[in-house]
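Quick question: who can interpret this fold?

. . .
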Amino acid sequence: MRYRPKSIIYTKMMTYCATGANGYVGSWLVKSLLGYLPPLTAKSQYFQTKWRGNERLRLFRVDLQGDGSFDDAIKGYDGVFHIAASMEFDISPNHVNLGTTYVQGKVIDPAIKGVRNVLGSCLKSKSVKRVVFTSSISTLTSKDENERWRSIVGETCKIPIDRVLKTKASGWICTLCERQIYVLPKLISEEESFRYEKERGLDLPSSSLSPITGARLFAILSAVNKRMGSIGLVHVQDICIAHLFLMEEPKAEGQYICCVDNIYMHDLLLNHTFTKNFTRLFSVYRVDDDLEERPGLMKPMISSKKLRKLGFQYKYGIEGIIHQQLMLLSILGFLP
């Protein structure tokens, strides 16, 4: 896919750097960036071997915690998609009650340093004009300060960091490989990015996505469903196009929720048009029925109004997303 910015289609081909290219969203974004001759940053040796020899790619092995690690990768490029996140900390079952020292040293400090390293390299490059930062919908909440359900969840509905530290909100500790903290570094990285933007004058729009799904990540998805009241869905191709849209749209600023629609996990697994015939395949998972048991309660709407108002149009709706997923599972032999 060769994607040229509409505002400069008759001038030059822009070049961009994508961090976290070995991740799910990052690797998909690579396919949408090939026309930009992007440098890619990844820690995985597998991806270095996989992509080596492609003359349209430059691959750098980097470390979020390494001072100046991104300098060479970012230098000379027009923009940066910062997708990589500092999530390398494991918590054994014996450390459920985390101490302040551990959280500060293993979670907060690395998250801040990772953001500063990337954005610092952007400033030093003298060429980077915009950074698109990938955040997570896990930093939002559908409950107000009085723990009442909101009808609409927008970009300003943040979970206060002090509340996460005090109460270990849903998603603070989840089963991901081993037990890992999820929400806190997302919040810290996001807050630090916007602080850096304000202090240093970077142009930094941000896109908030739902957590990536999968068997090992189900605990995170379930935690978000419990806290948000529903799950926000978006096709990975729309995610990539939204990143490109925010990179090129002159009016883009601040944070944007990238979510075509939202649905109860209960409905998604049991009652949806395409999934109702496969109910038994999902019965091993426990679905939280708290919201379902309260008659008349409307699910909070996770709103993408701000992104749509800017002019972004989604290609895939919920029907298309689920249909494609089930067709792929069928082709791979996971469904009858």
Summary: The mean pLDDT is 75. The radius of gyration is 20 Å. The chain has one domain: 6-265+300-318. Residues 6-265+300-318 form a domain with the Rossmann fold fold (CATH 3.40.50.720).
